[in-house]
Design goal:
This protein is mainly beta. The chain is built from one helix and seven strands, in the order ββββαβββ. About 5% of the residues lie in helices and about 30% in strands. Bound molecules: zinc ion (ZN) (2 copies).
Length: about 130
């Protein structure tokens, strides 16, 4: 984990809501400590900031277990093993936490506005 990132976080990138396609960088899936759900961490392909997005499973007992609450109009609840599959279909947004120039006050995420899909997910365990 001491490897330096390939590019520094470009704080000067102006906020633009833009879909940049499938990101080629490494994205890692982690479980969330304080509840059911997953966290996807990686590097924003646009501003190169470190970004992490959390995806919560539906509440147990409501019949939505496995359904990620950010999926709108997505497929019905999937067993947990298919969570990766769902995450690969999901569009991820930059949440690098840096208020990029021209960040709108009502921006859904604090970042550069980029969105992307991931080609594959790693896990810390599997490395
Ligand atoms: Zn970004
Ligand atoms: Zn950024």
């Amino acid at each position: 984990m001491s490897e330096s990132p390939p590019a520094p976080h470009d704080f000067g990138t102006a906020y633009v809501e833009t879909y940049v396609g499938v990101a080629t960088g490494v994205f890692v899936r982690q479980t969330v400590d304080d509840g059911p759900g997953l966290r996807v961490e990686g590097t924003c392909p646009r501003c190169h900031g470190r970004t992490a997005s959390e995806y919560r499973y539906g509440l147990p007992g409501t019949g939505t277990k496995g359904l990620l609450d950010r999926m709108r109009g997505g497929p019905p609840a999937a067993p947990q093993g298919d969570a990766d599959d769902a995450l690969l279909r999901e569009v991820h947004f930059c949440e690098c936490g840096h208020p990029h120039p021209e960040l709108p006050a009502d921006a859904p995420f604090v970042g550069c506005g980029a969105s992307w899909r991931v080609a594959a997910l790693g896990t810390w365990d599997a490395q």
